[in-house]
Amino acid sequence: MDDSVSRQGRAMTSRRAIAMAMAVLWLAALMLVVKAGVDRLNAPPWGNAVAGDLSPEVAGDTQVGQAWRAPLPGLYCIELFLQPPALPARQPLTFHLRAGVDAGSDLWTATIDPEQILAGVPYAVEFEPLRDSKAKTFYFYLESPESGPGEAVEAVYGPETALEGGSAYVN
Question: 20 to 30 A from 156, CA-CA: which of 11, 12, 56, 130?
Fold first, then answer.
C-alpha cells in the first residue's frame, strides 16, 4: 500500500511540475508579445534638433521637409522641432504627409497654429496609424505661403542632425 501511495504522490508531483513548466512557458511567451508591442510604441526620436544658419523660415514660397524610411509599422506621429516666429504670427503652417517625395497627393494634412509652438519643445503632429508603414519611404513638408520674413516659423535643424537614410528638403 505504501508503494501505491508513493507512486501516486510521484505522479501528482510530476503533473504539478509539468503544469508549472507550462505556466512559466506561457507567461514567458506572453511577456515577449507584450514587449514587442511596447517596443513598437516606443520608437526613439530621430535626429538632433540644432538651431542655426540652416534653420530656414517657412514663409512665402519656401517649403521645408524631410524624407525618411519608417523602421516600424504603425506610424502615427511626427515630432517637429520648430522655432516660434520673432514677431507675433498670424499665418498658420500647413503640414503635408506623403508616401514619398514624388507622390502626387497627401496621406494627411494638418494646420499648425504658430501660437501653439514653443521653443525647444517638439510639436507633435498625430494622424491615423499607418499600419503597414514599416520599411516604406515617407515625406513631409511644411508651408506657409501667406507668412512673410520675420513673422514665419523656423524649421530647426543643422549640420549635426543625424537621420540615417533621411534627406532634408528646402524648396
Answer: 130
